[in-house]
Design a protein that fits this description.
By secondary structure, this protein is α+β, with helices and mostly antiparallel strands. Helix content is 42%, strand content 11%. A two-stranded parallel sheet has the order 1-2. It has a two-stranded antiparallel sheet with strand order 3-4. A hairpin with a 2-residue loop joins strand 3 and strand 4. It starts with a helix and ends in a 7-residue tail after the last strand. The chain binds a DNA duplex through helix 2, helix 3, strand 2 and helix 4.
DNA sequence: CTTACGGCCCTGG
DNA sequence: ACCAGGGCCGTAA
């Protein structure tokens, strides 16, 4: 028996995360809020960090509230996430995520 | 646009 | 119990 609230938090976050459709993204804080734990953005981050590298969960669809990838550009974590997102139709311009629309809006 | 700072909340030493 | 540190966030300079 461990900390029940935290266990609940984790399972909720993972559940919601598993239901994020392809091509969509969510912020750490948003995810926490949906899970019923507003203010737990950092915990979501730690949880993502704890996920196994080969996880099926779309951890890469979680980004920060500034629509940026929360990793330094020179890290491979950053590259892995970026690659995944680009595969799902996102474009990263100046570190910002943008939907890949047919007509680049002007 | 880039930094800094305070606030937030758990973990691990 | 104290303290430092995170895949964070919003505001201010």
């Amino acid at each position: 028996m461990t900390n029940q609230p935290m266990d609940r938090f984790k399972s909720q976050v993972l559940l919601i995360l598993s239901e994020i459709p392809e091509g969509e993204c969510i912020a750490y804080g948003e995810l926490a809020k949906l899970a019923g734990f507003p203010g737990y953005a950092r915990q979501v981050g730690s949880l993502m960090k704890s996920l196994p590298k080969d996880t099926k969960l779309p951890w890469y669809r979680v980004i920060n509230a500034q629509h940026r990838i929360s990793f330094a550009e020179n890290t491979d974590s950053y590259l892995r996430q970026r690659k995944k997102l680009e595969q799902e139709g996102w474009i990263i311009v100046g570190n910002k995520l943008m939907k890949n629309e047919k007509h680049t809006k002007k």
